[in-house]
């Protein structure tokens, strides 16, 4: 029970800042044992380019789990199809990027690791390679056989979950049904208890329309879908309130009495979260049979290899994954 959490970390898009921020980990004290999944030659080349004195040691299945050693990172070598050019996307390497996720899942499902942390991938180049891909969240959900998962971003004391994720705005209203919203709230509520050790979590639910529908004058979704679900769950003594107008929901007066906010769509909640904590926030996928966290930013191709990449979000993602592992161990003890 006291063993360090074992985290697998995928380096993401090799042409982006994923390798940069992963390599920076060697310069920080860590509270969990970390295994990188990626091309060790790409990582060595990037370390040389960045002037980072990092020792990269190849790890193979069957080896003892890596211990924490200052200045050293262990890597499960997953070769790229083509050599990586910093800042230049190559669709030929897209299958290798997804192979990293598949290998990470295999290690988790075999009980050889406790949690997955992901550096950013580039959705466009994966699709350009002929592989349908909308994001880590959806890919991992499908791989784990989960129909319903929830995206949560957390940073500087604010937690924002999403009722819908990577959808066209025109498709959002139809995607918010009583069934889907109830499932999302149940997943969020359970995760706040299990993963964040909150005994009686308080959740604020945003409305979909301006002014939360203005009593039906600006839309019916609050009346027909959102309010009935909230009222039903309140009868189970869940501390859920709303629907709140999104333009006034994210104010200190309301947030001081909340453990999480549920936004109805991606760009309703995440601009506020990222303004509040960009570079420090963590993306957490709720509802999976595994623990998965990620950074709050993209591949930043223009910064890759320059030494200007900031790795704070990755450090927070590692710490969040380790904390969730410890909370689950404690709860199951």
TrEMBL record:
Substrate binds at residues 136-137, 274, 283, 292. Pfam families: PdxA. A divalent metal cation binds at residues 166, 211, 266. GO terms for molecular function: 4-hydroxythreonine-4-phosphate dehydrogenase activity; cobalt ion binding; magnesium ion binding; NAD binding; zinc ion binding. The keyword Cytoplasm applies. Binds 1 divalent metal cation per subunit. Can use ions such as Zn(2+), Mg(2+) or Co(2+). It comes from the Bacteria. Its cofactor is Zn(2+); Mg(2+); Co(2+). GO terms for biological process: pyridoxal phosphate biosynthetic process; pyridoxine biosynthetic process. Pathway: Cofactor biosynthesis; pyridoxine 5'-phosphate biosynthesis; pyridoxine 5'-phosphate from D-erythrose 4-phosphate: step 4/5. Keywords: Cobalt, Cytoplasm, Magnesium, Metal-binding, NAD, NADP, Oxidoreductase, Pyridoxine biosynthesis, Zinc. It is found in: Cytoplasm. Its EC number is 1.1.1.262. It catalyses: 4-(phosphooxy)-L-threonine + NAD(+) = 3-amino-2-oxopropyl phosphate + CO2 + NADH. Belongs to the PdxA family. The active site is located at the dimer interface. Catalyzes the NAD(P)-dependent oxidation of 4-(phosphooxy)-L-threonine (HTP) into 2-amino-3-oxo-4-(phosphooxy)butyric acid which spontaneously decarboxylates to form 3-amino-2-oxopropyl phosphate (AHAP). Homodimer. This is 4-hydroxythreonine-4-phosphate dehydrogenase. The gene is pdxA.
